[in-house]
Amino acid sequence: MRWFWLTFFTVCPIVAVAFCVIAPGMDWWFPSEAGSPLGERIDSLFHLILYIVTGTFIGTQIAMVYVLWKSSKKDDTRAWFSHGSHNLEVIWTIVPAGILLFIALYQMDVWAEFRVVSQFPKEARKAPVAEVMARQFEWRIRYPEPGRILQIQPQPTDLYAVNEILVPAAKPVMIYLKTQDVQHSFFLPELRVKQDAVPGQIIPVWFEATKPGEYTLVCAELCGWGHYKMGARVVALAEEQFEAAMEELAEQQSDDGFADAGDSDDE
Amino acid sequence: MSVAHPVSHDAHDDAHDHGHEQSFVSKYVFSTDHKVIGIQFLVTTLLMLMVGGALALGVRWQLAFPWESMPLVGRLLFSGEGGQISPEFYTMLFTMHATVMIFLVIIPILAGAFGNFLIPLMIGADDMAFPVLNMLSYWFMWPAIFCFFMSFFEAGNGAAAGWTSYPVLSALPQAAPASGMAQNWWLIGVTLVGVSSMMGSVNYMTTIINMRAPGMTLFRMPLTIWAMFITAILQAFALPVLTAAGFMLVADRLLGTCFFIPAGLVVNNADPTIGGGQPLLWQHLFWFYSHPAVYIMLLPAMGMVSDMLANVARKPIFGYKPMVYSMAAIAGLGFIVWGHHMFTSGMNPALGMTFMTSTMMIALPSAIKTFNWIGTIWGGKIEFNTVTLNSVAFVSMFVVGGLSGIFMAAVPVDIYIHDTYFIVAHFHYVLFGATLFGVFGAIFFWYPKMFGRKMNEGLGKTHFFLTFLGANGTFFPMHLLGVAGMPRRYADPYLHPYLEHLLPMNQFMTYSAILMGCAQFLLLFNFAYSLFYGEKVGRNPWKANGLEWTAPSPPGHGNFDVLPICYRGPYEYSSPLVEEDFLLQTEYLPPPDKGEPVKEPEHA
Amino acid sequence: MSIRRKLNILFVLACGFLIAGCDAFSPPDAKFVVREETNKLTSDVATAVEKELEGSFGTPHQLVAWLKLPVDFGGIPGATEESQLEGPLNKFPVKFDAEADGDFISQFQTENGSFDFGVSGTRLDWMTGEYSGKSMQVIGYDSETQLLTTKEKVEVPPAAGDTFILSAGGNLKSGRALYMEHCLHCHGVSGEGNGPTAQYLNPRPRDYRLGQFKFKSTKPAEKITQDDLGRVIKYGIPGTYMPSFLLLDDEELHSIVEYVRWLSIRGELEYRVDQELILASGLTNEIISERKADGDDAAEIQEEVDEAVANMPTMFHDLGDQLAESWVLAEDEGSLIVPAIPRVEDSFESRARGRKFFLEKCTNCHGHKGRGNGTMTEDFQKNEETGELYAEPGLFDIWGNPIKPRNLTKGLYRGGRRPVDLYRRFYGGIGPSKMPNFATTDPQTLWDTVNYVYHIPFEKPGEYTEVDREYFESKKAAGGETTTTGEVDESSEEKQTAIDSADSPNQK
């Protein structure tokens, strides 16, 4: 039985680590490379912690199996009558403390850059691209008319959309995040962005999509039975295409049905 | 603090005295004997474990076979729809799973079952300081269970705003189907559970401070008692905040106040809210309790595992005082880290930085403890029995749970993994992987003391093996799901293309969970079977040092034959002073011939 | 007994329990909801109705594609070629067009190049020719000779050019699967708007079974188009729990739309059959027992019942034809509401004219300032069907749910916020909500009102005081009525005659 359990406690951590090693290859990993500069920094911090943590895990598991192996030997010796070691305690207090403090302080600036409004990129702060209003169970978007600045109060010229946010790619953009009813959370997995929408508050959120493309938006705060249904997309377009898309949106919004006898499908 | 008072048999007001026959009801039902109460808690919580597990299997079923007919439930509640559950039912499943597991299983089994049974025995008292209060603390559980049970019958089939019950979802009845009467029942249930906990914590603190046997100084107490003591302090300071928050939420719901409800919200086309409140306030108050609560759900298991490991390794615990200080540090730091549940909540970003630092630091005492456990086994004389296996599993899985916590403590990474399955993996590793395995070990270890018989080893090992595989198979992949960006609390994550490929993994996890669930029947069977057919044992089947092992198995009324006197710490295994490899705390060693006083080793 | 033995016994018991309890683990069958009216019918007739429904539409898990309905059931269309073979035979040369050929190959060809049509074969429905209306089971296909093999043998081979659909119902099945995943829990298995979640929602989810929908682009009497349904699913209905399903792709959207239409047709067919049987023939339990009590001959009554039962298939076919026609007509160009003139430019003058029209026609329900608090929300209205007053004051839709007129100060337009959408709401009204239509009003006025309504959320206090004063003075001068009638005008011909007085205490 001794060897069975020793093997068991050896094999299990190995399987766990192996599982993690093959995970990226099996697509059980990040949905994509980080699609934003901030996301890249988040990923690098994640990987740094991952290496430290994996090393610690392997170290402790090896230590555990080793001490189990040694102490489960059937012989006539008596257990080592030790109450501990002051020196060891000091070492394994100071070293982990140092590592932890390092991790804590290492990326304070990433956090500040993401969340402290005065640190937001100026160009994003000046011209928010949309107001994103979360509600049970969709995302309602309000854009300013092309050429105008988005106001907190809705304007007669504003454009509206649902579940699709158009943004220019390759530059920082800011949205105003609101909610009409309960808490929701604005989560862009590929861009590594998340911010809860709090009832009664307007929260500015900035992000940058490095490349044009379609990015998933999902809700990440329980908001009722439809919490899982709140799938939407952020469409990042190159500058000219973005402007063209906004013009088209403006045109569709002002469709008076007279031009063609047939109804157009798209809004 | 190191002076122990002689225990007087008349120090507490009993409903009976010696020589007076007790009725069945006062002996076994409304008993004031801490041992009976402890066993009552144990049996009740094991039952609730099955209820919570069943709810979890419902969750896992939906994630593995989305929108297919759910066994039992489908036929009972959704036959018109072909057995397919509704989305709001799913929100109830995970809410009640967490609620039952946290409030009706883990907290009561650690503090109520083991705390109650072990504290007087380990410190040499004949009962708790307030036996009637103790009895009440158990019987307050049943109204709480009743309330949660009643919520299942209300609209929405049970409270469904998450165990975290964030307003505005939980505050406005129109915000969710179950935010009507079901949520009211839930709030009452949580309050009652809180009352029960509070009664227990008052009792434990008083008993440990006042009723230790002579010679039982604080630094001669077993780590189990230290853990229970610190846990009781945590309960006492943190719980009132939750109760207050709960009252505020009830007031918002029933009295028209708006502590948590801002103005102008239109939900379900009801009238706009009058408002003036702040939803984030609830989160601060709730997590101010609930973060210490997670340490309440961990520390007693840590203490018990320390005792069990020292015993099976036949060695003193490595670093007794650092272990004590670490537990105190965990508890103390535990009060200043609550904001790490709220990094993305919209609170002031400056708080993100402060909470990140304190959260990182709280990993330190846990790391120290882990190294000390490994150090305890180091150089020991260990045998692989059920107790060993469960304790070793505790340590390994605690390592996994603790290390995954570091990712979340780093705020930028938390931006991504908050409210994903990474978090779910983390807390299941610490709650199931650590605490529950510690509990399984503790059940095996102290069962002989409770019932005078040993549980079956073969069944115990089989139960461990299957549970370990099942638990890891269920919870380890959750880390990967979290990294893949799968959010929590989703009834159908595969609606989103970026998550579609995760279905096979979820199915694997469900099969593991079913295995894990079925394996628990082995434990229940072992428990029940051994009551009648288990190997009968004497006072000290494990050759352990604690005071409890000097009492009969099971201890009678008053616990000890003679007043125990404590001469040393509880970890003098393999002491050179005696031939056996254990040395009871109460064993009197006469001074050697040379006339020198017996020198007991200093604690590191 | 050893512990092993005890465990074994326990294990056997557990297995036995599981097997016996398997029933608890097998999925129940979803069933289509039976209308209240059908349940009121006398049992023979009710059974016949249900049987006919099941025959034409099936059950939720065993769908039946009634091919004459204007629903895209999906399937692979093909045609036969000239056959050299003589009967009796079961092999026909067939050809598919490019798209159908691709579908055919991807659905039926296996890895090794052979064709698999499943254990019991795949259904083939003949659309034209000798065997039109009949079904056969295809069991094989030879790609070299392009011969399709069926289970059934026929005497005469089908002529060249006879068309068929293979595996009809594929689209319906995928629609059903998508519907169950996304829509079922609110709209219910039968589209009756009473799924498990429905009771908690305000407003209630749509009940498709009257064949009427609120937000459509067609003329008042016409049905809703596929495009309209697609828009509702795609963009949601803001202000309600109908969310936007923008991320569904076009194919999925189309399947769901077809399934919804199919459910609607099924529901409306049952409704119409019930109306016929109850109102025209009086075949409910209540009426029959009354008649018996009155002394009518039981045998005669039984004859009537038998006749109705025998006639059921014909009734279904006839009513089915009518329904099919109306749905087809909705897709016709002529059914679409197309404004006769482009939108009038937004200006104060245009809005002022719109304001006057609003005062004339809209304030009864929408209130003087457009807040949705007009006097009709406080009066008791009459239920058209029963002739009785509703139990509560206020307005009710055709499904009997209480509804509120829109608060136009919110800028929330449930049917869409484009100018054409608003125009269509005015021109076509919202039938089920009993919002009257203004089809006969001139387009200029309608556009003026559109301009006015758009501006309501941005109105400044006192902006229209002069306009209002002008309007009421001209009304007084013309000697107009200043009382409300309290009735909602349903007919599309009559103009609304009730006018609000500027001094009435109901103004807010």
Give a written overview of the molecule.
The complex is a heterotrimer of chains A (267), B (604) and C (508). Chain A has helices at 2-22, 37-71, 86-106, 108-115, 122-126, 239-253; strands at 130-135, 138-143, 159-162, 164-168, 173-179, 184-188, 193-197, 203-207, 213-219, 232-237. Chain A has 267 residues and is of the alpha+beta class. In chain A, strand 6 (184-188) and strand 7 form a beta hairpin. Chain B is mostly helical and 604 residues long. Chain B folds into 3 domains: 29-296, Up-down Bundle (Cytochrome C Oxidase, Chain A); 298-537, Cytochrome C Oxidase, Chain A (Up-down Bundle), CATH 1.20.210.10; 549-604, no CATH class. Chain B contains 17 helices and 2 strands. The radius of gyration of chain B is 25 Å and the shape is globular. The two termini of chain B are 20 Å apart. In chain B, 64% of the residues are buried. Residues 482-508 of chain C have low confidence and may be disordered. Chain C starts with a helix and ends in a 30-residue tail after the last helix. Chain C has a 6-stranded antiparallel β-barrel with strand order 3-4-7-6-5-8. Chains in contact: A-B, A-C, B-C. The interface between A and B is large, with 99 and 120 residues.
